[in-house]
Fold Methyltransferase BTM2.
Amino acid sequence: VGDFDKIWREHCEDEETLCEYAVAMKNLADNHWAKTCEGEGRIEWCCRLLQASGKIRLLDVGSCFNPFLKFEEFLTVGIDIVPAVESVYKCDFLNLQLQQPLQLAQDAIDAFLKQLKNPIDSLPGELFHVVVFSLLLSYFPSPYQRWICCKKAHELLVLNGLLLIITPDSSHQNRHAMMMKSWKIAIESLGFKRFKYSKFSHMHLMAFRKISLKTTSDLVSRNYPGMLYIPQDFNSIEDEEYSNPSCYVRSDIEDEQLAYGFTELPDAPYDSDSGESQTSSIPFYELEDPILLLS
């Protein structure tokens, strides 16, 4: 067990490395993903979900280069620990302070967002219709930090607002089915309900709706934070240095995932929440209808 808060502080202070990472990510998005991910774009997936009769207030956490800014239907606030472009605000979301919700009309709230100061250290609650975590959660070194981020997203969303989560995974759909089930349970414990899930070639994409203003009171003792794990959480330096690939032994978690995957066979990829099978060439969707955010 490491001191993940200390690790995160030191990481945020290493601005030279972070700047190099931000530039590399922008180049990757501009020069690689745009050409090789046709039909499987994560930004396009988010946009297809969202329909509204008014401007959608969208918070893009870990924004890097502000990909949602070009869409007129969004009033976008992009934040990052080290922005790659000037339109993104500098903000450490993990340590963002939350304030009481604004008691203002919608146009006044829009005006407030357009006048935010850089860097952002605090934001009012219930401010956004959509919060996007695109390739964000796996960036953190511990499940508890991922859970804190999801909890903050819940507090920043209006009732019925949407949390969109994209996380990388190049494995086949059932390889990490147990992990995705675990994430669903943990995030729903915060007052969300998952209504859409897709698996692209290199990522999972999930949409959660905020269905309650409050979370349950007994979250930590039920170990919900620990359920937001990723496979890398179970690696150690010793494992990497001394492991013999020819004598690899599966972990208990991997055994569970393997067993869970076999429950899906011999049918095509299947989601246990909906009970519907899908062919492997088509991304799985729980709900096909676009979501009307505003009345």
